[in-house]
Design brief:
transmembrane transporter activity, 237 residues, Rossmann fold
Length: 237
């Protein structure tokens, strides 16, 4: 059963000071079955992150539709869903990991991971235990657990980002270069969690430049270059 259907999706961005509109992506079509892991590849600027952010409803499509099969709401068009619905989905069903950490100020690493669990209905004691277990897994130094992440290195911030998103075991997890600044050992920890999530039924869509990391994880790859080459050939014929 399809959990995500992207149909003729297109997105434009306005550059106001130049009075121009730039087309980021066009005619994107793909389907993701429940429990699959789909990788999106392509050169920088090809629109990979635009697709992922639109799935998370950070962006709204200018063309086409994105349908999501929600555990609570059934099949919905994400571009038309009310804000209240999107807030619920982000808390309970759809996780997002970016290369950058954007969190509430004056929240410690422990509090951030714990809060993610409390939002899912865990009690305080269980949330605290699971937060510590998760921080340990991603090898964040216990000395950092009760400090603010703005003091962390890039790799530490990214590991915290992954911890916050994966600890919820979301129905759908979107990954935007989650291993970009990690060493090989940390990448292994991320892969381990992804494998467990996939085995438990989580659907994943991820952007990776590290093709080797994707090997053996993804069910199929949506390649932006192949997509646009195919459009070009079809147009020329």
């Amino acid at each position: 059963m399809a959990i995500i259907e992207v149909c003729d999706f297109g997105k434009n961005f306005s550059i106001h000071h130049l009075n121009k509109t730039m087309q980021a992506v066009k005619n994107i079509n793909f389907t993701v079955e429940e429990g699959q892991f789909v990788g999106i590849t392509g050169k920088s600027g090809s629109g990979k992150s635009t697709i992922l952010k639109s799935l998370y409803r950070t962006y709204l499509p200018d063309e086409g539709y994105i349908y999501y099969d929600s555990g609570r709401f059934g099949r919905i068009n994400l571009s038309e869903a009310p804000e209240r619905t999107i807030v619920y989905l982000r808390k309970h069903e759809i996780g997002y990991v970016s290369q950058f950490l954007n969190v509430m100020p004056r929240r410690t690493a422990r509090e951030l991971v714990k809060q993610a669990l409390l939002e899912m209905g865990e009690d305080n004691a269980a949330a605290n235990r699971e937060a510590e277990k998760t921080l340990n897994h991603f090898q964040l130094d216990p000395k950092l657990w009760d400090t603010y992440p703005n003091t962390f290195s890039g790799g530490e911030k990214l590991r915290l980002n992954v911890a916050m998103a994966t600890v919820k075991q979301p129905r759908l997890l979107l990954l935007d270069e989650p291993t970009a600044s990690l060493d090989q050992q940390s990448k292994g920890k991320v892969r381990e969690v992804i494998e467990k999530l996939k085995a438990s039924g989580t659907t994943l869509i991820g952007i990776f430049h590290d093709i080797e990391f994707m090997d053996g994880l993804t069910d199929y790859v949506f390649d932006m270059q192949t997509h646009y080459e195919g459009m070009s050939i079809a147009h020329e014929s």
